[in-house]
Design brief:
By secondary structure, this protein is mainly beta. Helices cover 13% and strands 37% of the residues. It has one domain. The model has no long low-confidence stretch (mean pLDDT 81).
Length: 82
């Protein structure tokens, strides 16, 4: 039987909640009798998403309130390439 598991993908500092947050993905692993199927990611979340959603402004795609904004993707893009 297939099973679901929340796993941490990345840990990063969030300026909005002023704390480290964990980005998690819900992964569905195939049943043991279907080993050739790859695991599937069906959901994403932030470990501090509930706290972030209590603010006046919409959060980001990780908290589930603003799917068009990913602050961590922007911060990685602005880093200089070595």
């Amino acid at each position: 039987m297939a099973y679901r598991n929340w796993e941490v993908l990345k840990i990063s500092y969030c300026e909005r909640v002023e704390d480290e947050v964990a980005f998690e993905a819900e992964i569905v692993y195939p049943a043991t009798f279907l080993p050739e199927q790859a695991p599937r990611i069906i959901a994403h979340r932030c470990s501090r998403g509930l706290a972030c959603n209590t603010f006046q402004q919409a959060g980001c795609c990780w908290s589930g309130t603003n799917p068009g904004y990913d602050p961590f993707k922007e911060s990685e893009a602005s880093k200089p390439v070595p």
